């Protein structure tokens, strides 16, 4: 049997019960189950904006790339007023593929990968190159114990026959495409290296390290990375030396998706290009970016600047 006994409250207890009831009554107003956009926290509201996804071919060590493009993302976000995210990729081919599928909006490509990306994505726009990219160079390097002598003539390259030789990435302009072109001009074919084929280190840093260690007798690297490695002490002149510098050719450049104005608003692509072209050493944040890029500034560029790269790419079978 159930008994309903009257409960007696003191004055203080009655007041506590009333206060608890008022708190419960107000709860749905203070914490609605479905927030309208006006109630979104600032960080959450920011995330609702489209994100500009940037990337770059992985031509150097990940730690340097993460630092550089983290700074680029911060600077572009500040200048453009949109969220910007750096999205690393595993290799050169992945950068081209992700751009083709629209998973990357702005990519720092080399000459060859840039041509490949534009051919696979009609309407993609070349925005800028560094001041050093209009006439870029490859440096052929050799281990000092290899017996390969430096020289000013392209004939130096004939010494590489029968030697252990490594390119960088298979899709690198300065680490494979143009070195193979200049080797062919000198009468050196890939099957004439020791073992009947060249190696592919994957990046310029790796090429320098492999040649310096003696794992390979010689290799081909990006001039800017070579100079940076010498400056930082990562390349030891007593173990690895430059043997020949190529003539100039066009190389790296920024390429943007064709639909950025639709995603971010009319005129966004032009605004993005102007932001990159505005970077100067007089601004501390921009100076740090330019230093890591090995440049003084970025300059305008256009697709027609890379016609020669496309021709060489087709010649050696990297573009079909």
Describe the structure.
With 320 residues, the chain is an alpha/beta fold. It has 2 domains: 48-134 and 251-315, Periplasmic binding protein-like II (D-Maltodextrin-Binding Protein, domain 2, 3-Layer(aba) Sandwich); 138-245, D-Maltodextrin-Binding Protein, domain 2 (3-Layer(aba) Sandwich). The chain is 41% helix and 15% strand. The protein contains 12 helices and 11 strands. The strands form 2 sheets. The chain has a 6-stranded mixed beta sheet, sandwiched between helices. The protein has a 5-stranded mixed beta sheet with strand order 7-6-8-5-9. Helix 4 (92-100) runs parallel beside helix 5 (111-120). The chain is globular. Mean pLDDT is 89; it is low at 1-46.
Strand sequence of the main sheet, in spatial order? 2-1-3-10-4-11
Q: Kindly provide the name of the CATH class of the largest domain.
A: Alpha Beta
Q: Please, how many domains? A: 2
- What name does the CATH topology of the largest domain carry? D-Maltodextrin-Binding Protein, domain 2
Overall average pLDDT: 89
- Report the end-to-end length measured between terminal Cα atoms: 91 Å
Number of strands: 11
What CATH architecture of the largest domain would you give?
Answer: 3-Layer(aba) Sandwich
Number of helices in the DSSP assignment: 12
Strand content: 5-15%
Order of helix and strand elements from N to C terminus: HHEHEHEHEEEHEHEHEEHHHEH
């Amino acid at each position: 049997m159930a008994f309903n006994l009257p409960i007696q409250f003191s004055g203080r207890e009655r007041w506590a019960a009333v206060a608890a009831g008022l708190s419960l009554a107000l709860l749905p107003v203070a914490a609605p189950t479905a927030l309208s956009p006006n109630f979104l926290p600032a960080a959450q509201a920011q995330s609702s904006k489209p994100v500009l996804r940037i990337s770059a071919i992985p031509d150097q060590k990940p730690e340097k790339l993460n630092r550089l493009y983290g700074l680029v993302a911060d600077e572009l976000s500040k200048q453009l007023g949109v969220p910007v995210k750096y999205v690393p990729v595993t290799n050169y081919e992945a950068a081209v593929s992700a751009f083709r599928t629209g998973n990357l909006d702005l990519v720092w490509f080399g000459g060859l990968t840039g041509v490949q990306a534009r051919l696979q994505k009609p309407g993609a726009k070349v925005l800028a190159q560094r001041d050093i990219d209009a006439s870029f160079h490859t440096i052929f390097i050799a281990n000092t114990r290899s017996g390969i002598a430096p020289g000013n003539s392209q004939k130096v390259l004939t010494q590489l026959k029968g030697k252990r030789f490594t390119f960088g990435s298979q899709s690198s302009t300065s680490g494979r495409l143009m070195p193979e072109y200049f080797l062919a001009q000198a009468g050196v074919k890939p099957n004439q290296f020791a073992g009947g084929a060249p190696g592919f280190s994957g990046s310029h840093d790796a090429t320098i390290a492999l040649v310096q260690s003696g794992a390979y007798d010689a290799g081909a690297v990006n001039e800017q990375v070579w100079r940076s490695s010498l400056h930082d002490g990562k390349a030891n002149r007593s173990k690895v030396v430059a043997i020949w510098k190529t003539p100039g050719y066009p190389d790296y450049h920024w390429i943007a998706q064709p639909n950025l104005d639709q995603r971010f608003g009319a005129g966004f692509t032009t605004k993005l290009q102007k932001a990159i072209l505005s970077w100067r050493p007089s601004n501390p944040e921009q100076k740090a970016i330019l230093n890591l890029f090995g440049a003084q500034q970025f300059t305008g560029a256009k697709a027609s600047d890379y016609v020669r790269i496309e021709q060489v790419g087709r010649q050696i079978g990297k573009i079909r």
